[in-house]
Amino acid sequence: MPTSSPPPVRAADRRISPVFLAITAVTAVAGWGVWAGVPAVGLAVFLFVTGAWVVSLCLHEYAHARTALHSGDISVGAKGYLTLNPLKYTHALLSIVLPVLFVILGGIGLPGGAVFIERGRIRGRWRHSLVSAAGPLTNVVFAVVCAAPFWLGALDGVPPYFRYALGFLALLQVTAAILNFLPVPGLDGYGVLEPWLSRKVRRQVEPFAPYGLLAVFALLWIPEVNRAFFGLVDAVLGGLGVSEWDTYWGRRLYQFWLGTDGVPAG
Fold first, then answer.
1. How far is CA 146 from the centre of its chain?
2. Tell me: the pLDDT tens digits for 224-233?
3. Quick one: which of 236, 250, 261 has its CA closest to 49?
4. Largest Cα–Cα distance in the chain?
5. Where are the alpha helices (DSSP H) in 73-159?
6. Which positions are annotated as active-site residues?
7. Going by C-beta distance under 8 Å and a sequence separation of 6 or more, which residues neighbour residue 24?
8. What is the C-alpha to C-alpha distance for residues 225 and 258, in angstroms, rounded to an integer?
9. 14: which of 37, 81, 93, 199 is 20 to 30 A away, CA to CA?
10. The whole model's pTM is what?
11. Is 156 exposed, middle or buried, given 0-12, 13-18 or 19+ CB atoms closer than 10 A?
């Protein structure tokens, strides 16, 4: 039980951070560049997708914090988690730097994790599960929004480069959602399941939590596991109307330093 109550959430604790607004502005400008087909379109795609990815990471963590706030943990306000400022996270390296690096190197949405929730302030197993589920559910919503022009059949008039960028961004969101929902210690999927486990099982699993994500990525190096994982990703994207063609060329544009020659412009 907490020994003292945190201060109430002030208006300043909810104010959107200038850092987040700056990231959003860069994303919007880069998105306009992709739509307009500027000469350095590969760089524009890189900035647009990276910016949108960071925005989604911030929203992921905000969803955890906001749900925790309404579930009883008002300490998230004083910690700055409601401002969408990534610099306020407990582990900015894990939540922002590493996920961006994984996108740059491999085009996969690495789950982040950096808001510290005081679970002792939250009562009820359903609330604990919902706090954990809120983050990856945000990735699901983001994926649906990115794929909306595809599954709505509203691609007429959408420039090809922008279409490819949206397809690749949808892929990142789908991979992040699937990985986050895995019932592996250290990931949100296990956080959803954990409140329903016995205390004995939780104690036995707890030492493995710091290594859960590493274990998942080690498994993804196994060709059979990798094929099964990306087969599932492609199936989900296909259900949203996003083809492998779109995600392939989106990744090619994103990794502009490898050259963009041959990327279809129409």
1. 13
2. 999 999 999 9
3. 250
4. 63
5. 75-78, 92, 98-106, 125-151
6. 61
7. 51, 55
8. 27
9. 93
10. 0.91
11. exposed
